[in-house]
TrEMBL record:
Keywords: Aminotransferase, Pyridoxal phosphate, Transferase. Its cofactor is pyridoxal 5'-phosphate. The lineage of its organism: Bacteria, Pseudomonadati, Pseudomonadota, Alphaproteobacteria, Hyphomicrobiales. The keyword Transferase applies. It catalyses: L-aspartate + 2-oxoglutarate = oxaloacetate + L-glutamate. This is Aminotransferase. Homodimer.
Amino acid sequence: GFAPASRISTIGVSEILKIGARAQAMKRDGKPVIILGAGEPDFDTPDHVKQAACDAIRSGKTKYTALDGTPELKQAIRDKFARENGVSYELDEITVATGAKQILFNAMMATLNRGDEVIIPTPYWTSYSDIVEIAEGKPVLIACDAQAGFRLKAEQLEAAITPKTRWVMLNSPSNPSGAAYSAGDYRPLLDVLLKHPHVWLLVDDMYEHIVYDDFQFVTPAALEPVLKSRTLTVNGVSKAYAMTGWRIGYAGGPRDLIKAMAVVQSQATSCPSSISQAASVAALNGPQEFLKERTESFQRRRDLVVSALNAIEGLDCRTPEGAFYTFSGCAGMLGKMTPGGKRIETDTDFCAYLLDDAHAAVVPGSAFGLSPFFRISYATSEAELREALTRIAKACAALR
Ligand code: PLP
C-alpha cells in the first residue's frame, strides 16, 4: 500500500479547503450558501496588466526566463521597494517565485536543518507552520490574544528565542487577524532581535496596500538598517493587484540567502511563468491610483462586518487595521445548544453550525492556531455580506 513520507505525515489537508469543499457541495445541492472563506480579492486583474500578458505572449516571451526572475521584473521590484518602502536592494538581492508561498518554501528549504526552530505568532496563516514542517524545522507557536491586538510582545519573543531559533515570521497586516504592526509596535521586537544575531526575520508584507484609517504601513528593513542583513522582506502581486492566479511573489534579502533560495527553485520550477512576470512588471510600474479606490471599498465592508458582528451577543470583533479579514472571538457561544440539540464545544463546532444553519461558510480559529475565534473574509459584495450577517445573527440568537 501507499505510505507518505514522514516529512508530510503531520500535515493535514487544510481546514480551510475542507470547509470550502463542503460549502461547494452544499451549493451544488441547491443550498443558498454564502462563502466568506476566500483569501482573494473579488476584484478583477486590471486591464493594463492583462494587456501586458497578451503582449508578452504575442512577442514571444514564452520561454524559460532567468532562474529567479527576469531583469525587467527585478528592476521593477527594486524600484517598488525604494519608492514605497524606502528600502534599497541590489538586483541580486531580489528573488521572484511562483507566489509568495513558494518564496516562503524556498527560504525554509534553503535554511532549515532538522529541528531548527521558527517562531510563529498565532493566529497565523496556516502555511507558515506546514512549510516549516515540510522543511523539517520546528514551528514554535506563540499565542497573541485579542487584548494584545493579536501582536507579538517583546517579552514573548525574548522568552521564545533559544540557540536553535533560526527565524521569526511576522505578517503585517495579518491573515487571519487583519492586525498590523506600526513602527512603534515593531520597535521593541526589533530591539530584541538586535540582541540575538543568530535569529533571522522573515516579514510577510503581502497585504501592505490594504490598510485603513490612515494606518502607516512600514517594513522592518526600512526601520532598522542593522537588521536588514538578516531580514527577508516578502511581498507579491496576488492581493494588491488581484492577481492570485498569476502566481508571482517576490522578496528582497541578503545576497547569500537569495542565492541559496535560487538553488531550491532551480530544482523545483526552473523559473516563474514568463507571461506572469511580464504582467507583474506592468502591475508594479503602472498606475497605482486604483489601489486606493479598492481599499476604500474594502474599508466600507470592514466597517459593515465589524459593526454587525459586535451587535451579536456573545461575539467580540476587534477592528482590524488591514487585509480583508475579521477575526472574532466566539467564547460567548461555547457551551450553548443548537436548535437541533447539539452542544457547541469549540469554534469548529460553531463554524459547522453556521454552515449548516445559516449557510454561511466561515473558518474556525483552530485552523489558524488560536481558539475560540472565527475568520470572515469580506472580499465579497456588500449585498452578500449583509445577507450572510443577517443569517449569522439569526443563527446565534437561536442558540440556547
Ligand atoms: N502570505 C499571506 C499572509 C497570505 O495570506 C497569502 C495567501 O493567502 C500568501 C502569503 C501567499 O500568496 P501567493 O502565494 O498567492 O503570493
